[in-house]
């Protein structure tokens, strides 16, 4: 990816030579960039293609409260508007509600008022919440609310989405789609979301962007058009230690910023006196609040792989059902197993998990996944996961069209029955009767696993116990690992079940784990009763 120092310098110089601060004791002083702000500007505006167009199309910045987000966002909209060479450059500053959107607009207006250069170039239209280019009246910056009605006619060059952890309603999510996709006909676009941490279940948009940023940072996915940074403490850090405050807050003086550490100390002591640090951790350590408990330590998960997962191999044009490499075929051939099934139609993955008891009390898990081929790229962008790469590796099977063909699932189960000593097929009753009826007609033993505490608490606890003990041998399958990373639990009266994410509000998926738990529900009963032929394996 080519990097242009002149482009990066232009953005930084605009802030420091043209803009002035707009609030409190810093009013009227030059906008000297903090290190985190300079890094963001250089990465977003310095990465260009051979024609000088920005490569970064989506950016996400997650910083604690009082880090200077509002003025930074105002500066970016003015930089783009004032320097753009595109005719009809539309820049939108959007927030969940009008009041929040106006904060950025007012800061931008004060910056224009303080700058002779900007006053000559830009015209303030306070009555319409717009700032207009004097030499091109079709180029403007407008403040809009994500809960308003602005239609599909917007054609944004740049969108600055402020405090996206507050974008929660269906209307706000629809308007996010309009804004982030509305400039598709333009040569270059940019959507920048900037926010403080939210509440995981209540902030689906921000959480999705948070997770994509984490996955890009950790090398799980790659997207050269995306830039993201998260500034936060770790959940295990001491919330009362000033080192934690410095770590989480890029705008404190110790990090080259303006914020006095004593101000954070005052907030900490106030929350301690109230007996609740939840808000302090969220706003000043930038730690997401979770209404459910995360339950899988991925270090423990990774340590019990047991063997190496491999993609499926094609077996010729006469069969659509791919098969295992020879070494895995030898490992599982003729062993007793239980098959768990978790079906979907389009949005979720569909999963089948073959679970094999081992002589050390553990279980081998052999999962299979399906997803529709239609709309795959869109789901990659929404979920932030490399579905196509997984499909190319044989780790996911692509169903033709927009929905899963259950005949493919039936074929995989028949394949398993021929190769393994398949004891039982365990179905989630939802939408499975047609498939399970056909499997029963073919002579297979099928059992419905009701999705509630009474049925699933035991096998769910068993799965957690197996992971903690290093005895859930999953081969390091990356799709199943992702499912494991998304797990959360719902508890009641010493019982627990894994919480299924809301498909329309959350990009998390746990289908492979759900299928495994369905299989464990019957496998563990049979193992405890010792009522199958142990000598076969």
List keywords for this structure.
Nucleotidyltransferase, domain 5; single chain; 18 strands; 39% helix; 537 residues; Rossmann fold; alpha/beta
Structure, explained:
With 537 residues, the protein is of the alpha/beta class. The chain has helices at 5-18, 35-46, 69-83, 98-114, 116-121, 170-181, 204-217, 242-248, 261-274, 278-284, 298-303, 326-332, 376-383, 387-392, 406-419, 433-441, 453-468, 478-485, 511-529, and strands at 58-62, 90-95, 122-125, 130-133, 136-145, 158-162, 190-195, 226-230, 293-294, 336-342, 350-357, 363-372, 397-399, 421-427, 446-448, 472-473, 488-492, 495-498. The chain folds into three domains: 5-231, P-loop containing nucleotide triphosphate hydrolases (Rossmann fold, 3-Layer(aba) Sandwich), CATH 3.40.50.300; 234-291, no CATH class; 293-536, Nucleotidyltransferase, domain 5 (2-Layer Sandwich), CATH 3.30.420.240. 39% of the residues lie in helices and 18% in strands. Strand 4 (130-133) and strand 5 (136-145) form a beta hairpin. The longest helix is centred in the last third of the chain and has 19 residues, at 511-529. The protein is elongated and about 85 Å long.
Short description:
This protein has about 525 residues and is an alpha/beta fold. It is built from 19 helices and 18 strands.
């Amino acid at each position: 990816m080519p990097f242009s120092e002149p482009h990066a310098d232009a953005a930084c110089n605009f802030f420091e030579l043209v803009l002035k601060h707009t609030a409190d004791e810093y009013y009227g002083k030059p906008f000297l960039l903090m290190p985190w702000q300079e890094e963001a500007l250089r990465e977003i505006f310095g990465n260009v293609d051979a024609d000088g167009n920005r490569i970064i199309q989506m950016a996400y910045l997650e910083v604690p409260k009082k880090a200077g987000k509002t003025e930074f966002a105002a500066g970016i909209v003015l930089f783009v508007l004032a320097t753009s060479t595109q005719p009809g450059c539309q820049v939108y500053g959007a927030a969940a509600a009008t009041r929040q959107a106006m904060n950025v607009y007012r800061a931008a207006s004060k910056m224009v008022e303080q700058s002779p250069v900007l006053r000559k170039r830009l015209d303030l239209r306070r009555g319409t919440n717009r700032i207009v280019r004097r030499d091109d009246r079709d180029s403007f910056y407008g403040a809009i609310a994500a809960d308003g009605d602005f239609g599909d006619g917007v054609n944004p060059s740049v969108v600055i989405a402020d405090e996206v952890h507050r974008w929660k309603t269906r209307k706000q999510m629809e308007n996010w789609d309009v804004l982030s996709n509305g400039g598709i006909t333009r040569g270059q676009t940019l959507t920048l979301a900037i926010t403080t941490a939210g509440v995981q279940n209540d902030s689906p948009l921000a959480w999705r962007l948070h997770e994509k940023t984490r996955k890009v940072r950790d090398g799980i996915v790659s997207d050269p058009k995306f830039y993201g940074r998260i500034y936060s403490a770790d959940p295990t850090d001491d919330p009362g230690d000033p080192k934690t405050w410095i770590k989480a807050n890029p705008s404190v003086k110790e990090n080259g910023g303006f914020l006095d550490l004593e101000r954070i100390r005052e907030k900490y002591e106030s929350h301690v006196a109230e007996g609740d640090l939840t808000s302090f951790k969220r706003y000043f350590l930038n730690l997401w609040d979770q209404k459910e408990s995360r339950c899988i330590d991925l270090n423990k998960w990774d340590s019990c792989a047991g063997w190496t997962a491999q993609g499926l191999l094609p077996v010729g044009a006469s069969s659509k059902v791919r098969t295992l490499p020879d070494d895995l075929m030898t490992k599982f051939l003729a062993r007793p197993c239980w098959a768990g099934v978790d079906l979907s139609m389009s949005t979720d993955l569909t999963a089948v998990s073959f679970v094999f008891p081992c002589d050390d009390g553990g279980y081998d898990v052999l999962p299979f996944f399906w997803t529709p081929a239609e709309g795959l790229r869109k789901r990659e962008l929404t979920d932030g996961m490399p579905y196509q790469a997984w499909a190319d590796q044989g780790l996911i099977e692509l169903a033709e069209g927009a929905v899963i063909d259950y005949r493919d699932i039936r074929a995989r189960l028949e394949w398993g029955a021929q190769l393994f000593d398949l004891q039982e097929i365990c179905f989630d009753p939802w939408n499975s009767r047609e498939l399970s009826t056909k499997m029963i007609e073919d002579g297979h033993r099928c059992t419905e696993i009701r999705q509630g505490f009474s049925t699933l608490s035991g096998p769910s606890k068993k799965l957690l116990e197996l992971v903690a003990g290093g005895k859930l041998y999953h081969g390091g399958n990356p799709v199943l690992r992702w499912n494991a990373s998304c797990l959360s639990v719902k508890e009641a009266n010493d019982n627990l079940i894994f919480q299924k994410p809301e498909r329309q509000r959350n990009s998390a998926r746990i289908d492979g784990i759900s299928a495994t738990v369905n299989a464990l529900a019957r496998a563990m009963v049979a193992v405890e009763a010792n009522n199958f032929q142990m000598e076969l394996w």
